Amino acid sequence: MAIFEVEKLGLHYLTRFGQKIHAVTDVSFSMDQGEILGIAGESGCGKSTLVNGLMGLFIPPLYPTCGDVRVDGESLMNRTPEDVRQNVLSRKVSMIPQGAFNALNPTRKVKDIAADVMAAHMKGIDKKQIYERLIERFNLFGMDTKRVLNSHPIQLTAGERQRSVIGISTLLNPQMVIADEPTSALDVTTQKVVIKMIFDLLEKGIFSTMIFITHELPLLRHVADNIAIMYAGEIVEKGTAEQVVFDPRHPYTKALMGAMLSAEPGQKQRKPTAIEGAPPNLAKPIEGCRFAERCPSAKPECKQKKQEIRIVGDRQVRCDYAE
Amino acid sequence: MKILKNLLKSPMFIIGAGLFFGTLLIALIGPIVYNMTMDRVGAQYAAPGGGYLLGLDDLGRDYVSLLLSGLRSSLYVGFLAGIIATTIGTLIGIYGGFRGGLVDDLLNMMTNLFVVIPQLVILILISASLQEGRSLTLIGVIIGLTGWTWSARAVRAQASALKSKDHISLAKLNGDNTLRVLLVHILPYIFSYVFMVFIIQVASGILSESAISMIGLGPLDTVSLGTILNQAKNTGALGDGVWWAFMPATATITVIVFALYLLNTSMDGVFNPRLRK
Amino acid sequence: MLKQYPTLRFILMRGGWYFITFLVAVTINFYLPRLGKHNPVDIIMGKSGSGMSTEDARIKEEMYLQEFGLVKVSGSGATREIVRDSEGKPVRTTGFEQFVTYIGMCLKGDLGTSFQKYPKKVVDVIKEAVPWTLALQIPTIICGWIVGNVLGAMAAYRRGIFDKVFFPFALGLSAFPFFVFGMLLVYFFAVGFHWFPAMGGYANNVIPSFSFEFFSSAAHHYVLPFFSIFLILAGGQAIGMRSMGIYELGTDYIKYAKWLGLKESKVLAYLFRNAMLPQITGLALSLGVMIGGALITEMIFSYPGLGMAMLTAIQNNDYPMIQGVTLIITTSVLIANFTVDVLIGFLDPRVKAGLQIGKGN
Amino acid sequence: MQSNNIFTAVNSVCSFGHGKKLVRAVDDVTFHIADEEIVSIVGGSGCGKSVLAKMMLGLHYPSAGTFLYKDKPITDHCVHWREVQAVFQDPFSCFNQFFPIRNQLKAAFGIYKDKPSNKEMEERVDQALLAVNVKPSEVEGKYPFELSGGQMQRMLLARIFVLRPKVLIADEPTSMVDACVRANILDYLMKLKEELKMTIVFITHDIGLAYYVSNRIFIMHKGKIIEQGTPDEVTQSPKSEHTIQLLEDIPEINREWIKA
After folding, report:
1. In a domain, C13, yes or no
2. Does C106 share its domain with C135?
3. Which residues, at least 6 apart from C236, have a Cβ–Cβ distance to it below 8 Å?
4. Are residues C161 and C82 in the same domain?
5. How is residue D108 annotated by DSSP?
6. B interface toward D at CB cutoff 8 Å?
């Protein structure tokens, strides 16, 4: 049974001048226990907005438009913030935000931030127990536990900060972890250390199901079981990591894969795909396929007809002409 | 244009601008419409009425005339001090922030030094030493010369943040000299900010003048709102319950300053998106 | 050398900086009153010497001249004598010599002699006034700061109707000049309703002592000055805290704290603490204005503190007194600033870290 | 003696601060870049690559060692910038928001001692716009914030077409644009190089990009150039420990990266 289901979810945010930007439209997917779903797309495609809307807690200016999100069959929509805070956050769904430096309260030591999380969710736990459990947990991360816990965020390296954030987000062994570009601010070496830590936590059973957001497809190929590609607020293709990376079907995914540059022999001779233009303005209603303007294989009717997800092979593609 | 449109959407801006331009208008056309006189026209502290809307002062002078004159003085002093303080502050801040290095360190040190030495103390010391010739203009100039520090700090922070922006590097690569970079590539970016600083400086100039006049170190050549209040205090009008001796002047100062604060806050809301809901 | 003791190093560095500022302040305090064309003795003589015979006037003038270090003096103690030139006229000192004498006197804790209350020492007048000012200003500024910040943070966090009513109200409060608000309170609550006395620090018929009578009288006189400073201060602080709070509300760490499911009270605590830090810096910057405003408020209430001492001095052209009071005010503002500066170093790890370690990476 | 070296660095150092706070942002680097070469300087954040770029632009001077442009030290900025120009990573922050984009392209002529006639300047701006595939009418009277990211990046390139420098320092020119648009930008850069016989120095963290575009790659780490060679030498048979590590840590599609 699917433990996490998203059904026809739409999200919008309000601009300063009261304009509605429909950043996410018609997103549906479901995840099984132990699955790692990667969501990729370029900046502004709505991937971060999407995951911010999966927690049942909507922080203005983000608001749900329509649709449903369910954990264990239980809907997260239309619940009071206090209900969500007590019963969902950190326990059922937990977020690893991007930019650990800004996510950690700059005037609080790591151990205190972590202790706040435990105190907020466990009744009757005393300070001593909290710190014992913290040390026990942080010992798993391969850092100088004592120093990291007793430091303010500014005193830590970028890698240590990111690992601390992951540690804090997974303190209560959440059923679902949502990682929003957890490594995009790090250099490649630290990125690898952080990814290793995530795999380590998965192996130790601290959590098992994860949504991983990144704009880097090669990374996703190594991290995720399944990959969903987003464009202009929609999922345009979803399949296994192998399928999406090696055998993309949607014209946008094809372009994305073709545009990649890598330092591998023979790549120098290959000409990367180039597409002109920019994604459509999401403040205005869009008819037809959102990629039609830039699609190299667009048909005249693409600009009028909204594309729906359909099954091609055993993956989902939002293109009537994909084979 | 878009900014103006957004400003006009803000009720705070409308009220602030209304109050401010209202008082400005009164100060400008008041003397034309109203027959102002500084002569004795009746008994000491005669109550309002009988042709004198706000009564008479301890010398039997008409309060409406005094207030109009005081309002003009206060606005004059506020703008004079505001212009001087903002100009000095902006020049020092923008130059220091942009140049960086030793020049900036020195300017910054000087600014920080004068920020902590209370302006009122300096005002008192100067005013007290200028026994004669303490004119409204001189007081305005002194307030301006002593009040620039925080605007320099504020502008410096902005200019310093802009310094490392790519468009500045590109302007240099275009061969622009420092003056052109400052005028064309930095000033427009911080202009709205400088304008807000100016508004606050005007308000603080008005407040400073009234404070210094209140303690008896005000201008000797004219009536200001502060000297009206000083006179009211010195003659014991407060204890005698002569409300018309200080209420109208009090209200006038507060309304101008409140209007300026409203303007500043509403602009902050438009220019600084974080503060909006 | 002090690398092992970063905290001490931090305090010493800030202290050194404030010492330099202090020196500049003392210099300003000395030279500014001398900007005018007349020396203080001429002014005082012009006023008080008019009725005296010339010989009396000359003696008195020389006494003043000696008192204010305007002429050269030889010997010390009882044998002090004015150095005279060939015509028997006292030899004037240069400005710089006066400055050196002044510094020397300051270091000995001697701020000179009051003109008006001659031969009372300035220091003694100040000693009588300072307790009143401290008793009024320290609690008022602290209370105003705390109440203003708490209300401002709540307005930022809750927004809505509370904010809509509260914000213009606080903005209006902060637009009042300090002393004007004092006048209004006097008019309504002292003159109008007779709830509180309008003037002084205690009733005329009680003698300052450790008696209940004295303290209850002082408390009764305390109320109006307290509120007239407190309300304006709180209003101004609330405005600052509100905008800081709104800014902090949009930061990532607040969002993350919400996502982690921290209790609302905890999120508010995060918000308050971090928004408070710039407010403390702001306090340091505006202390001069606050103290100045509060001193003028003291004048309105004829409160027996430094403000009143200053007002009397100004009205009587009592230069040594004016200079003495301004020096005390500047020094206390500097001490208060230094305290706040060190305090923020302890409260905000970023400040100290900025001095010791670079950006972590 | 006439060499064809554009940049020559011998034991160049660029340091900031002094005493205990001394930071050697560029530490003892030795290299030469030949005429019409495309060189990429690759490294992580804080490795000193941007400082090195600024040295090439004459915005930083070497604290020690020799750093030459065409065998001479860089002295007169204006003369230097007539030949050496740059594109930066964020096209939006590169232009002044308060002036129309076209005026700013024209402002680039400010670097010349004798500006061409107004008519010639306008013509050259038009040509430059056409060279990056933008119709002059599309940007006529437009302000920077009215254009898209891709268009803005092309405006930066148009500026280079206007100036026709000998050397281009490209500081992360594609890191802010979408992957799909990146190839376009690279196409224009290559076109520029062909037309103007330019030397290009890429500053990038992306070794894939460096591999694709360059004749030679320098790998920088902690202020030092730890590896230099052709793309294949650097990626296939790296000598430095750090380069080997770096290459191993980059996730590539076709290579085992981490054991799941």
Report:
1. no
2. no
3. C148, C170, C173, C174, C286
4. no
5. G
6. 165-167, 169-176, 184-185, 188-189
How many whole angstroms separate alpha carbon A12 and alpha carbon A24?
7
Please report which confidence band the pLDDT of residue C49 belongs to, taking 50, 70 and 90 as the band edges. low
- Sequence-distant (≥ 6) Cβ neighbours of residue C191 within 8 angstroms: B238, B239, B240, B241, C198
- Single pTM value for the model: 0.81
Residues of D with CB below 8 A from A294's CB? 180
DSSP letter (8 states) at residue A211: E
Lowest pLDDT segment from B102-116, C53-67, D244-258: C53-67
CB contact under 8 A, A85 and C263: yes
Rounded-to-integer distance, Cα B134 and Cα D163, Å? 60
Residue C298 lies in a domain: yes
Q: How far apart are CA B141 and CA B146, in angstroms?
A: 9
Domain that holds residue D198: 5-248
Q: What is the pLDDT of residue C41?
A: 67
- Given C111, C139, C154, which residue is the final one in a domain? C111
A162 closest CA partner among A145, A184, A140: A184
The span from the CA of A46 to the CA of A52, in Å, is 10
| CATH code: domain of residue D242 | 3.40.50.300
Q: How many domains does chain D have?
A: 1
Residue C199 sits in the same domain as residue C336: yes
> Is the pLDDT confidence value at D21 over 80?
no
Range of the domain at A50: 4-317
Under the banding of pLDDT at 50, 70 and 90, the label for residue C44 is: low
Can the peptide bond before residue D100 be classed as cis, meaning omega within 30 degrees of 0?
A: no
Domain harbouring A253, CATH code: 3.40.50.300
Q: From chain A, pick out residues whose CB is under 8 angstroms from the CB of C264.
A: 82, 85
Residue in C318, C338, C283 with CA at minimum distance from that of residue C126: C318
| Domain positions in chain B | 11-27+56-270
- The yes-or-no verdict on residue C1 having pLDDT over 60 is no
Predicted confidence (pLDDT) at residue B275 exceeds the cutoff of 70: no
Residue C3 domain flag: no
CB contact at 8 A, C22 and C335:
no
- Which positions in chain B touch A16 (Cβ < 8 Å)? 273, 276
Question: Any chain A CB within 8 A of the CB of C348?
Answer: yes
Query: What tens digit of pLDDT does each residue of C223-278 get?
Result: 888 888 888 888 888 888 888 888 888 888 998 999 988 888 888 888 888 888 88
C349 with A107: Cβ contact below 8 A: yes
Domain boundary among C111, C139, C168: C111
Phi, psi values for residue A310, rounded to 5°: -140, 160
Q: Which residue has the higher pLDDT, C252 or C7?
A: C252
The ipTM estimated for the assembled molecules is 0.83
Residue C115 confidence (pLDDT) above 60? yes
Containing structural domain, residue C138: 122-360
Whether C249 and C354 map to the same domain: the answer is yes
Predicted confidence band at A311 (pLDDT cuts at 50, 70, 90)? confident
Q: Which fold has domain B11-27+56-270?
A: MetI-like fold (1.10.3720)
C143 and C43 in a common domain: no
Q: Tell me, what amino acid is at D168?
A: L
Residue C247's closest CA among B241, A221, B273, B93?
B273
Residue A322 lies in a domain: no
| Residue D24 CB partners (closer than 8 Å, separation 6+) | D13, D14, D15, D223
- Sheet of A226-231: strands edge to edge? A93-96, A176-180, A209-214, A36-40, A226-231, A234-240, A315-317, A310-312
pLDDT tens for A129-184 read 888 888 888 888 888 888 888 888 888 888 889 989 998 998 888 989 999 988 88
Tokens 């930095």 sit at which residue?
B186
Q: Do both C297 and C191 map to the same domain? A: yes
**Which chain B residue has its CA at the smallest distance from C174's CA?**
B258
